[in-house]
Amino acid sequence: MKVISLFQFASAAAALKEWAPAGPSDSRSPCPGLNTLANHGYLPHDGKKISMSTFVSAITEAFNFDPSVGQFLASGAFQVFGLNPANDTLDLETLNTPGRLEHPASLSRHDQPGGDSLHVDPERVDAMLADSPHLFLDVVSAGVSRRRTFLESGRPNLTETIWTIMFGESSLTLIAMNNGTFPAAGAPTEEIYNIQAPKDWVKIWYEEERFPEGWTPFARSINLTELGAVGAVIRSEFVKS
Ligand code: HEM
Known about the structure:
Elements: H1 2-14, H2 32-39, E1 50-51, H3 52-63, H4 67-80, E2 89-90, H5 122-130, E3 136-137, H6 139-152, H7 160-176, E4 197-198, H8 199-208, H9 224-240
Helix pairs in contact: 3-4, 5-8, 6-7, 6-9, 7-9
């Protein structure tokens, strides 16, 4: 039995590209998702001069998201920075520019100006984990975390676009670090409450920016509509909290 599970672990791990932490001259972003992709080599490890199509294929391949997800996220970024998706490129650290996609009340980073919005603060990650009484995060705890960080940041004035991005980021946390309980396509909204992101996986992903041992991408690809549906439920929990 033990031999089988070790074998299963080895084959799941073999499917992932090798991980190496960022070096001092590597460019990294305030995004745990993109930094993980660069650390694993799905994006260029130096995090520099990344084209739109490279972003989309890295996100699609590593997470097994539908290409609509990577397309939506990357094209939004290129648009915000006034870049031509056909031939311009982006360094990851550019994404830390305040007033574009970077925003206050992050789950794992401090606010600009004055705070480090680029690197993870493990204390903030622990606070997010403490928002759930379970061994996992879910849509209820994600709503609580959004409320807590909003209040801790002094109720910043945020545009509707930034709110949508923030609920999308909460949704991506639950979906990216999911233990396989994602509802089947077309399942009732209530099943979104069963999505569980194990705390030990969330901690490793945010703090070390790598895929945890035992993690595998979903067997079926998750699309933009499903991502948005999870974000909408988190927003409803935020309103209640
Ligand atoms: C080209 C695609 C992407 C772009 C341009 C992007 C950009 C960003 C930026 C600028 C932030 C920082 C927001 C802040 O100030 O807190 C961020 C945060 C975040 N991103 Fe991404 N991202 C992308 C893809 C992804 C993917 C694929 C995932 C996960 C699968 C992801 C998960 C997250 C999460 C969970 C946060 C919240 C971090 C926090 O609040 O501390 N992102 N992203």
